[in-house]
Write a structure and sequence with these properties.
The chain is mainly beta and about 150 residues long. It has one helix and eight strands, in the order αββββββββ. The protein has a five-stranded antiparallel sheet with strand order 6-5-4-7-8. The protein is globular.
Length: about 150
């Protein structure tokens, strides 16, 4: 069994519907799936629009701005690989131009900074954030930076 120092952090599961999200992330772009029939944005990606049942979609570029909608600081970390990062945060970000779309991630001091790089006392619901992408084991992971550091 791997110990906490060698066990990898969780990585996303790739499927056909979500693959474009990760392809755009690799280019440093935050894009969200949108229905071309009714115009509604949807996340997570899926083949059929939950609003009008159309199978036609496109990927719209977002500004990458949002606000912290909610957050948690796991005590203790639930998985051994995260123990060395504690106290870290997991945040839910509401996108500025799509308030019904919420993404999960981590608030960090810089794109490549450790998960525990932001003082937990700085976490605030409503704080404005901006997406940044960093390579984690070959995957461009979205992370979040405070707009006002």
């Amino acid at each position: 069994m791997a110990d906490a120092t060698t066990e990898p952090l969780l990585s996303p599961t790739f499927d056909t519907d979500g693959a474009p999200f990760w392809e755009y992330a690799a280019r440093g772009e935050l894009r969200i799936q949108a229905c071309t029939a009714c115009g509604e944005l949807r996340f997570p990606p899926r083949p059929c629009c939950p609003h009008c049942q159309s199978f036609d979609s496109e990927w719209r570029r977002m500004s990458g701005r949002g606000r912290i909608w909610s957050y948690v600081r796991p005590h203790p970390p639930l998985l051994p690989a995260y123990a060395a990062h504690a106290p870290y945060n997991a945040i839910i970000v509401e996108l500025a131009e799509a308030p019904r779309i919420r993404l999960v991630g981590n608030l960090v001091a810089a794109p490549d900074a450790a998960l525990d790089s932001v003082d937990p006392e700085r976490l605030r619901i409503g704080a404005k954030v901006q997406v940044a992408f960093t390579d984690v084991d070959g995957i461009a992971m979205p992370r979040w930076l405070l707009e006002r550091p």
